[in-house]
Amino acid sequence: MECHRYLERLGVDPASVGCPASVAAVTSLQSAHVRTVPFETLSVAGDPFDGDSGGTAVQLEESALYRKVVADRRGGYCYELNGVFGWLLDELGVERSYVAAVNLHEDGEARPPANHLVNLATFGGKRYLVDVGLGTPTLRKPLPLDGTVVTDEAGVAWKVVGTERPDADALTQFRCQSTGEWNDRYLFDTEPRDLSYFQATNDYLSTAPESPFTGSPVVTRATDRGHVKLTPTRFVEWVDGEATEHPVVGAEEWYERLDEWFDIDYPR
C-alpha cells in the first residue's frame, strides 16, 4: 500500500499522521474518510439508466479494495470500506483486527450472519470500534467498548451496550437529536477474523437477487452537519436532523449529482 496516496485521497496531510497512529489521529482519519469516500452500491446494483444488471461479486482481496477506493476514487459497502481502511491502520502501526457484526432489521432480526465488517482497534489498552463502512447514520469517530457515549457534530450519539444474545458480545446503539430515543444498530463479537471469513455472506449480498444491495443503487456520504443520499429518483440532504428532498429527473441529473456531491465520474 502507498499510504501517502490513501491519505491524500482523504485530504489528509501524510506528515500529520504519526506511526503508530494515535487515537486522535485515527479519529481525524475516520472523520475524513466518511466525508470523502462514499458508501455506495453501484458495483453490485449497476447503473439504473443503461440496463447494467450489476450483481458483480465484490473482491475481498486488499489490493483490489485499495485499487477501487484509492486509485479509482470510488466508494463501496462495508466489506470494501472497512476492509481497506483496516489495511491502512495496519500500515500506520495500529493494533487492530477485523470483527464480525450483524446489522439488525427493523423487526429486530439479525440476518444474514456476518453481514457487516468492523475494525476493532486498541489504544493504550482501551478497545474501540472503528467503522467507516456504515450507510446512515454514519459513525464518524472511534467508539469505545466501555459504554462511553460519543456524540458527533451532526448531533448523533453512539454507545456500546451489553447483550444477552448468545451469538454476540455487544450491541451498538445510536440516538438522533430529532428523536431522543436509542435505536439498536448492529450486534458484534470481538473475535479476530480474516477477510476470508466474510466471503460467503459477501458473495450473497453482492450477487443474490434478494439481497438488499442488488436492487436500486444508493450512494451516501457524511457532511459537516449531516449527510447526503442519492437514489435513481431522489436526492436528499440532511442538515442538523432536517431533511430536504429533491426529485431526480432522468439519467443526466443523476450522473451530475453523482459527480458533484460524491466525486464519482461513473462510466456510461
List the keywords.
268 residues; alpha+beta; Arylamine N-acetyltransferase fold; 8-stranded antiparallel beta sheet; 7 helices; 13 strands; 26% strand; globular
What does this structure look like?
With 268 residues, the protein is an alpha+beta fold. The protein has one domain (3-262): Arylamine N-acetyltransferase fold, CATH 3.30.2140.20. It is built from 7 helices and 13 strands. The chain has helices at residues 3-9, 23-36, 42-45, 62-71, 78-91, 199-207, 250-262; strands at 39-40, 95-103, 116-123, 126-130, 143-144, 150-151, 157-162, 170-175, 182-188, 219-223, 226-230, 234-239, 242-247. It has an 8-stranded antiparallel β-sheet with strand order 5-4-3-2-9-8-7-6, with helices on one face. The longest helix is centred in the N-terminal third of the chain and has 14 residues, at 23-36. The protein is globular. The model has no long low-confidence stretch (mean pLDDT 91).
Helix content: 25-40%
Can you tell me the CATH architecture? 2-Layer Sandwich
**What is the fold named in CATH at topology level?**
Arylamine N-acetyltransferase fold
Shape: globular
Q: Tally the beta strands.
A: 13
Instruction: Please report the distance between the alpha carbons of the first and last residues.
Output: 29 Å
What is the rounded Rg? 18 Å
Q: Segments where pLDDT lies below 50 for 5+ residues?
A: none
Proportion of beta-strand residues: 25-35%
Main sheet summary: 8 strands, antiparallel
How many DSSP helices?
7
Overall structural domain count:
1
Strand order of the largest sheet: 5-4-3-2-9-8-7-6
Summed over residues and divided by their number, the pLDDT gives a mean of 91
**SSE order, one letter for each helix or strand:** HHEHHHEEEEEEEEHEEEEH
Instruction: Please identify the top-level CATH class.
Output: Alpha Beta
Content-based structural category: alpha+beta
